[in-house]
Amino acid sequence: MKRGVTTAVAALVLAAGLAGCAGSSAPAGSAGTSSDDAATTLTVFAAASLKSSFTELAETFEAQHPGTRVSLSFAGSSDLATQITQGAPADVFASADTKNMDKVTVAGLAEGEPRVFATNTLAIAVPAGNPARVTGFQDLARDGLRLVTCAKQVPCGAAAATAADKAGVTLRPVSEENAVTDVLGKVTSGEADAGLVYVTDVKSAGGRVDSIPFPEAGAAVNSYPIAALSGAKNQEAAKAFINLVLGSDGQQVLAKAGFGAGGQ
Question: How far apart are CA 37 and CA 244, in angstroms?
Fold first, then answer.
């Protein structure tokens, strides 16, 4: 009799243990929705030269709008415009020139009129110490100088071509990049003796590069427009982000990075 009771008790304990295990090991993906899953995602496509500023502004926006996460995608404006016109999902586009923004607006993909929020000017970036002894724009055509520029379809490349025309100089870059950050990378790594980048890129590089200003840069100032996109999943969030960029907080962040004020 005692043996039978003992066996029954053991069976009950085993069953309870199995039930407890089953309750604590739900299948993957069956848990409740996490806060990340519930968050609204705002996707912003922005010119590569905006990386530092927009990263800071995205953090500010998320702090001001709990439950909204900003997903940033940086590249050359030409590449971003192509992606948008080919159907890439994005809510906001910030271009480094009006030409690539025009591609988006002509395609009917901009919601409202784009607004200029910043300007930027070219500078010659050279490795720290300026080992090639570059003194001005004319030196960029010097035989044997390893010059890197943006490709002409990229805003910084188009600006470089305009400056070269103004200076009457024929540039022969050893490499043409699709983003200004790639040009800067070749200068900081020592792969180039000089590169045409924006003044903001020189500033962001700190002491890794020296800057050679040149008067011809004044003929090729880039205006940066921003717009919400017609396919935005959350138009209100898109407009709120644009307002942050255009507002005093956004303009302070951009000015700190070296951008000029936009006409808005």
Answer: 25
Other Cβ atoms less than 10 A from the Cβ of 69: the count is 15
Burial class (CB in 10 A: 0-12, 13-18, 19+), 247: exposed
Q: Tokens 């055509």 appear where?
A: 141
DSSP state of 68: E
- Are 185 and 113 in contact by the 8 Å Cβ rule? The answer is no
- pLDDT (tens digit per residue) in 200-215: 999 999 899 999 989 9
Strand 194-198 relative to strand 122-127, pairing? antiparallel
Q: In degrees rounded to 5, what are phi and psi of residue 228?
A: -75, 150
- Global pTM reads 0.81
Interatomic CA distance for residues 89 and 83, integer angstroms: 9
- Residue 246 Ramachandran class (φ > 0 left, ψ -120 to 50 alpha, else beta): alpha
Q: Under 8 Å CB-to-CB from 107, ≥6 apart: which residues?
A: 84, 85
Q: Distance between CA atoms of 148 and 161, rounded to whole angstroms?
A: 13
Q: What is the CA radius of gyration of the chain?
A: 27
Contacts of 180 (CB under 8 A, 6+ apart): 48, 49, 76, 96, 150, 154, 155, 156, 197, 198, 201
221-238 pLDDT per residue, tens = 999 999 999 989 889 999
Q: Are 26 and 198 in contact (CB under 8 A)?
A: no
- CA 191 and chain centroid, separation: 24
